[in-house]
Amino acid sequence: MNFLNNITLRKKVNRCDPNTSNVSQESTDTFESKTKSTEDEHSSSSLTIDGANNDSMPELSYDDNKVPELQLQIQELNLKLIAANEEINILRIENADLKTKVKKECIETPNLNTSISNPTITTLQQNLVELENQLKQARNEIDTLNNQIATLQELLQYKQNYDFDFLTSKHNINTRTIHNERNSLVPKNKLTGKIHILSNNQRNKILSIAENTFPNNYEVCHYLLPNCNTVQMIQNIESKLCGFTMSDFCIIMIGEEDFRTTRDYHSLISKLKETLEKVKYTNVIICAPTYKYGVGSMYNWRIENFNNKLYLDILANEYAYFLDSNKNLKCSYEMFHKNKGTINNYAMSIICKDILDYIQGIKEELSASTCEHNFTSEVSQDGEDTSTTPTTFFRE
Predict the structure, then answer these.
(1) How far is 320 from 250, CA to CA, in rounded Å?
(2) Predicted confidence (pLDDT) per residue in 188-247, tens digit
(3) Overall pTM surpassing 0.85 (yes/no)
(4) Per-residue b/e over 50-68, b at no fewer than 16 CB within 10 Å?
(5) How far is residue 8's CA from residue 35's CA, in Å, rounded to a whole number?
(6) What sections of the sequence does the record tag as coiled-coil (predicted)?
(7) What class does CATH assign to 148-382?
(8) CA distance 221 to 176
(9) What backbone torsions phi and psi does residue 395 show, to the nearest 5 degrees?
(10) Backbone angles phi, psi at 343, to 5 degrees
(11) C or N: which end of the chain has fewer Cβ atoms within 10 Å?
C-alpha cells in the first residue's frame, strides 16, 4: 500500500513580488486541485484499521505479526493439497485395476442371459414328469429287490434247517458222495458212532483230513457254512443232529467271522449256552478259535479274551465240552500261512488228532462212570455204604 497518500503537504509561504504571486497562486491552485482529486480517489485508503479517518501514520505492528501466520497456513494448505493429489492418484490406480478385473470376470463368466431370460413352463413340466417317472422306476426296482432278498432268505433258512448250506450245494454233493463211498466200505453193524463237524472254514480240507484221522467205524459228516458266524452255524442244530445218541459227537469249530471286529462276546456265549442246553441227547465239543501267526495282534487279543470267557462259562454251566485248538500248535510257518497267518492243513490235521484223543477220553470217562454206577447199584442192593465222591463231567 502507498503510504504517501496519507501525508498532508503544507503550503510554503513565499514572499515575492506581486507579479510572481499570480503565477505561484495559479500553480498552487492547480496543485491543490490535483491533491484533492487524489485524496478523493484514495479516501478509502486513508481510513485507519479501526474505521476512523486519521491523518497520522498507520499502526504496522499487527500486519507484521499476521504475515508469518498466513505463510504457515499457506504451507499447511500446500501440504494438504499434495497429500490429496497423492490419494487421488492412488484411487485412480485402484479404479483402473478394478475396471480391468471386472472386464476379465465378465469375459470369463458364462453368459446366462439366454438360459435365464427364456425359461419356458413346458420344459420345466417335462423335466418334472421325467423325474417322477424315474422315481417310480427306482421304487419298483427296490420293491423287486426286497422281494428277491426275502425269497432268498427264506430259501436259505429252509436249506439250513433240513440240508447242507444252500451256498455250497455243489461242494456238499461231493461231500455226500465221499461220505457214502466210505460208509459203503464199512458194514452198518460195525459203525460205532457219528461225528458231524460244523464250521465256516473254506481254506482247509476239513472233511478229507477228518476221514483220514478218525477210524473207519465213525460216520463223518461236515456241514460247511461259509461266511456265517457262530450263531448262524448253531441255528436249528437239533435238526442237524436228528437221530444222534450219547455215542455220537457234534464238533463245533468256531471260525474267525466273529473276531474281525471287537464285539460283545458275552451275548455270543449266552447264545451258545441257550442253544446247546437243549441238546442233552448227544455230546457236543466246542473247538476254540485259533490264533493268527505273524499278523493281527488285536485279533489274537479278541481270541484270547473269548476263549477264557467261554472256558469259564462251560466249566460253570456244563452244557458242552471245551477243546483248546491252540494247545499243540507251534508258532511257526510250518503250521500257519505266511500271507494271512491262518492255520494250514497240517495244523488242521493236528487239531483233528486232538479231537480224536478227546473223544476217546470222553468215552473212557463215560464207560468208567457207567461201570461205577453199576457197581454202586450192586453194592447198594447188598446193603453196604454207597457214599462215594461222584466224578465231575462237562456233560451229564
Answers:
(1) 10
(2) 545 678 999 999 998 899 999 999 999 888 889 999 988 889 999 998 898 888 889 888
(3) no
(4) eeeeeeeeeeeeeeeeeee
(5) 9
(6) 67-155
(7) alpha beta
(8) 8
(9) -125, 140
(10) -75, 150
(11) C
